[in-house]
DNA sequence: CGGTTACTTGACCATTCTCAACGCCGGTGG
DNA sequence: CCACCGGCGTTGAGAATGGTCAAGTAACCG
């Protein structure tokens, strides 16, 4: 059984002093019903959010009125980080289901970098993980067909829900409307509908209302064209945490690519 | 005139001790001709890279053999960060033009978080900025037509090149092949070709070989459907750097969204 | 020069979109 | 309790954006 803290411990951090920080975050909880804005694009950036329970989507608006859902957040995710680099929020955060989350003020975040380097490093790695996820989604949308995209998306949801302990017997609750799925994948709701039925008719999944059961994970994975990345756990953290004072045994360590004779190496 | 350090100073950092760290990075330079791999997907993650000169692309491969270029890197960019969260590299880094870059070992990066919090914070914010860029690209690819995507992409390149001091008289060198542009935007090279000529015929841009001149920035911006985010400069940094010991005047500070009477607030 | 790579253009094709209609279900008010 | 309503899902028919295939041309490089 996992908790909503699984995203914070995935890189193997949380020293005792870090725990105190996290419990300070979770001291103030907020709840919202479904289909409410947590924060609109253009709003002032005063905090980020730690999602304890429920589904939240983060979306970007286009001038044409169309929207792109850039991330479906599940319990344990941190919300609103990208906007830290912007003058005003760039993404709209909306609840998909009833949700519980903890606001974390930007000033509290900054303290981390000065006083809790291990936790800061973990958040940094977690942000890199989100970048990988965005790269994956971009590759689905840019380079695969509707059925391939949908398969990849459903698998991704399945795996992330499993990590949060929300999958039982290969089945999970999928609260997204078909229009929302379309806005994630760059498809219309009509085409999502048709494509879903194809996936069902192939015997890969089963739908009962909004309950979704994966019948043939292998078949789904075959349809999904992406090469799923393997996330580093503690190793990702350890890679960064070389003990102080160790002398670099540089040599070719970062130069595997330079096996080509025409490559030049200058400086040093 | 800017330098390739503009991406490091954009959030207003670089204390004297940080400068020493950066100059250590740039002590070892590597050069590669165009069309070479810096690092292939699947390779061990030993370092990240600081791009001093030239264009580099980072791409994700699909099992179908198609690729998605997830980022076109320009001088001043940091390369390879997302893979820090992975067991083995998830993105292939390839030079588009002759390029000069500095490998930074992961261990050196980790030191930052313990000993150079200001610089670490800057890298953190820079990563958030890259997330925003990915979100934007995803919104182009997922929710706009070919000509809209192309306009947004050309504008983005223009603005980023301008920030690096590489635009003169609204014109810049565009070393990408049309196939590569297609792999960025999720289009075929054939369609990129046709779409480019439409943009030219509308009098928005001019092409002379691989030199591209923006004739009508306003027209381009109108075609591009995205609401361009405004990046926070030093303010982004200051938001995080609340002086220690200041008591939170919490109140409604993170609760604008809860104006709805049906919202509940628990805990505290 | 010869060969390769990139660009250009045309004709045809298909995936996906648009528009429209209908049914189902849950909620709400009479 | 029933009638109504809105949101969501489903299905069909036709249109369109962009893909595929193919051939020819221009630019570049040894």
What do you see in this structure?
2 copies of one chain form a homodimer. By secondary structure, the first copy, chain A, is of the alpha+beta class. Chain A contains 9 helices and 12 strands. Chain A has helices at 6-9, 16-25, 106-115, 117-143, 146-163, 178-185, 189-201, 217-223, 234-240; strands at 28-32, 37-39, 47-53, 56-61, 67-73, 78-79, 92-95, 99-105, 171-173, 205-208, 211-214, 264-267. In chain A, a hairpin with a 5-residue loop joins strand 4 (56-61) and strand 5. Chains A and B meet through strand 1, strand 2, strand 5, helix 3 and helix 4 of A and strand 1, strand 2, strand 5, helix 3 and helix 4 of B. Strand 12 of chain A pairs antiparallel with strand 1 (28-32) of chain B, so a sheet runs across the interface. Chain B binds a DNA duplex (30 and 30 nucleotides) through helix 7.
Can you give me a brief rundown of this structure?
Chain A has 268 residues and is of the alpha+beta class. Chain A has helices at residues 6-9, 16-25, 106-115, 117-143, 146-163, 178-185, 189-201, 217-223, 234-240, and strands at residues 28-32, 37-39, 47-53, 56-61, 67-73, 78-79, 92-95, 99-105, 171-173, 205-208, 211-214, 264-267.
Shape of chain A: globular
Separation, N- and C-terminal Cα atoms of chain A: 51 Å
Overall pLDDT confidence of chain A: 88
DSSP, total strands of chain A = 12
Q: Strand arrangement, largest sheet of chain A?
A: 1-8-3-6
Q: Summarize the helix and strand pattern of chain A as letters.
A: HHEEEEEEEEHHHEHHEEHHE
Structural class based on helices, strands and sheet pairing of chain A: alpha+beta
Give the chain pair forming the largest contact, with residue counts. Answer: A-B, 106 and 106 residues
Share in helix of chain A: 25-40%
Radius of gyration of chain A: 21 Å
Oligomeric status of the shown chains? homodimer
Strand percentage of chain A lies at: 15-25%
Number of helices of chain A: 9
Q: Main β-sheet of chain A: number of strands, strand sense, barrel status? A: 4 strands, antiparallel
Low-pLDDT parts of chain A are 248-252, 256-268
């Amino acid at each position: 059984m996992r908790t909503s803290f699984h995203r914070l411990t995935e890189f193997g951090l949380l020293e005792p002093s870090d725990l105190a920080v996290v419990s300070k975050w979770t001291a103030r909880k907020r709840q919202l019903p479904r289909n409410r804005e947590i924060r609109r694009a253009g709003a002032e950036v005063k905090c980020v959010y730690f999602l304890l329970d429920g589904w939240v989507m983060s979306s970007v608006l286009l001038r044409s009125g169309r929207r792109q859902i850039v991330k479906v957040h599940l319990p344990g995710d941190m919300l609103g980080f990208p906007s830290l680099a912007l003058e005003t929020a760039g993404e709209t955060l909306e609840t998909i289901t009833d949700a519980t989350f903890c606001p974390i003020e930007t000033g509290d975040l900054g303290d981390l970098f000065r006083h809790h380097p291990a936790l800061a490093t973990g958040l940094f790695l977690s942000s890199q993980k989100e970048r990988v996820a965005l790269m994956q989604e971009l590759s689905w949308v840019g380079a695969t067909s509707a059925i391939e995209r949908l398969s990849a998306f459903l698998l991704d949801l399945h795996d992330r829900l499993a990590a949060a302990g929300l999958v039982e017997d290969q089945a999970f609750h999928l609260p997204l409307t078909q229009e929302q799925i379309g806005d994630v994948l760059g498809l219309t709701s009509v085409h999502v509908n048709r494509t879903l039925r194809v996936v069902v008719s192939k015997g890969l999944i089963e739908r009962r209302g909004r309950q979704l059961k994966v019948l043939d994970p292998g078949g789904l994975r075959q349809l999904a064209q992406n090469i799923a990345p393997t996330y580093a756990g503690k190793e990702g953290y350890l890679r960064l945490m070389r003990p102080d004072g160790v002398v670099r045994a540089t040599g070719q360590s970062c130069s595997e690519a330079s096996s080509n004779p025409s490559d030049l190496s200058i400086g040093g």
